[in-house]
Amino acid sequence: MCKEGKMIKIEDIQEGSLWYEVRGKKFLWRLRFYNPNTKSEDKVSITLNSNSSQAKTKARQLLLKKAKAKIDEEVSILDPNLSITSFCFEEVANVWLDDSQTKLKPSTLIQRKRIIKLFCKKFGEQPMSEFTVFQLQNYFNCLKLKKSTINTYFQVMKLFFDFAERMEIMF
Fold first, then answer.
1. How far apart are CA 156 and CA 42, in angstroms?
2. In this protein, which residues make up the domain named Core-binding (CB) (predicted)?
3. DSSP category for residue 148
4. Rounded to whole angstroms, how far apart are CA atoms 19 and 30?
5. What are phi and psi of 43, to 5 degrees?
6. Which of 29, 46, 155, 161 has the smallest C-beta neighbourhood within 10 Å, fewest atoms?
7. Which residues, in sequence order, are CB contacts of 70 under 8 Å at separation 6+?
8. Which pLDDT tens digit goes with each residue over 92-134?
9. Alpha helices, DSSP H, located in the chain
10. 18 and 59 in contact (C-beta within 8 Å)?
C-alpha cells in the first residue's frame, strides 16, 4: 500500500535501471525503482546463477515482485485519519532514522542517532507544525560548541527537515 492508501500493482511500479554484478560464480541482480512511500529512489536485489537473457527476464520479474512487497510492507507514516500537525519531532525523527538505515554507513547512522538524541531532549514533544526558523536559529546560536560541530548539527537538522518536507509533514 502506498501513502495514498491504495494497493500498488506490479505494472504501476516506476522502474529504473536493471543490472548485475558478479559475485564469485553467481550474479547479483539489482533494480532501481521509485518508492511512492518515501518519494525517492530505492533498490532491491536477488542472486541468480546466470546472466543470460532468460535470467534477466526472470530477475526483472522477481525484483518487481520484491519491490512491490517492499512498498506494500512499509509502514506509511501518514495515516489518512491522522492530522499532520499531530506529529511531534521525536516521532518523525524515529521514522527518518529508520528510513536512513539502509542508505547510510553504520558509522554515519550512529553519529546521526547521537545528534538526533540531543535534539530530542530539546524538541522531542514539540509538534512539527510549531517549528520556526527563529526558534532553530536561536537554538544554534546558544550552543557552546566548535563551529565545525555546530555545522555538523545544522546539516543533520537540515536533512531531517528536508525529509519531513518530502513526506509532506511540513510544507
1. 21
2. 87-165
3. H
4. 5
5. -135, 150
6. 155
7. 35, 42, 44
8. 999 899 888 888 899 999 999 999 999 999 998 988 888 888 8
9. 53-73, 89-100, 106-123, 133-142, 147-166
10. yes
pLDDT of 145-158, one tens digit each?
A: 999 999 999 999 99
User: Is 37:53 a contact under the CB 8 Å cutoff?
Assistant: no
For residues 35-46, one letter each, b for 16 or more C-beta atoms within 10 angstroms of the residue's C-beta and e for the rest, the string is bbbbeeebbbeb
Name which of 92, 122, 108 is nearest 156 in CA terms: 108
84-166 under CATH 1.10.150.130, yes or no: yes
Helix axes 147-166, 133-142, angle to 10 degrees: 160
Answer positive or negative: Cα dihedral of 76, 82, 83, 88.
Answer: negative
CA–CA gap between residue 114 and residue 163 (Å, rounded):
18
